[in-house]
Amino acid sequence: MKQFLKKNKGNIIFLAVLALLIIPQTRTPIQVFVQRLISFSPSETDAEEREQLTDYNWNVTSLDNRRVNFSASEGNVVLLNFWATWCPPCIAEMPSLQNLYDEYGDQVDFYLVTSEKPETVRRFMDKKGYTLPVYIQQSNAPEALYSQALPTTYLISKKGEIVIKETGAADWDSKKTKEIIDGLLEK
C-alpha cells in the first residue's frame, strides 16, 4: 500500500483537486482564491485611445428601491462595476473595491451594477459585510459602457473620458489606482 501511494502521489493529488473543483461548495472559494492571486492593478488607457462617454441617461434602482439616473454623476469621477454574486472573479475583487470605496466614497461616485434579484444581492452584501452602493440594472447601459463580460469596471473622469476599462478581476485598492483617481480628482 505504501508503495502504491508513493508511486501514485501525483495522480492522487490531481484527483483530489479535481474532485474539489467539481463540488460547487468548494469550487467557488478555490476560484476566488486563485483570482485574488492573479489580480493586478488595472491599467490606465492611453489618452489618445480613451473613449468619451456622452450619454449618461441610464436608470438603475438602488437596493432600497430608489430610482437613480446615472446622469446625476455627470461631471464627477465615477467608478462603475458590472458584477454578479455567482461570479468568482467578481467576488475576488470585491474586498479591494470595498477598500477603495471606504477611502474615496465621498469623492467618487461608485456604482456596482447587477441584474440579479435585490434579495439575492442584499443577502450577499450583508453576509460579506460590504457597504458598497449596489444598483439593479433596469435598462441597457449607454453604448460606451456595454460589456458582456463580468466583472467589467470603468473609471470615468469628470469630463466623461473612460480612463480605465478593466475586464476580469483586478486589485482596485492598489497604489497605482489611487494615484490615477487622485489625478482625476485634481482636474
From TrEMBL:
Single annotated GO MF: oxidoreductase activity
InterPro entries xref list: Redoxin, Thioredoxin-like_sf, Thioredoxin_domain, Thioredoxin_ResA/DsbE_sf
Domain Thioredoxin span(s) in chain numbering: 42-186
Cited Pfam families: Redoxin
Gene3D superfamilies, A to Z: Glutaredoxin
SUPFAM superfamilies tied to this protein: Thioredoxin-like
CDD domains (alphabetical): TlpA_like_family (cd02966)
PANTHER family: THIOL:DISULFIDE INTERCHANGE PROTEIN DSBE, THIOREDOXIN-LIKE PROTEIN HI_1115
The name this protein goes by in its record: Thiol-disulfide oxidoreductase
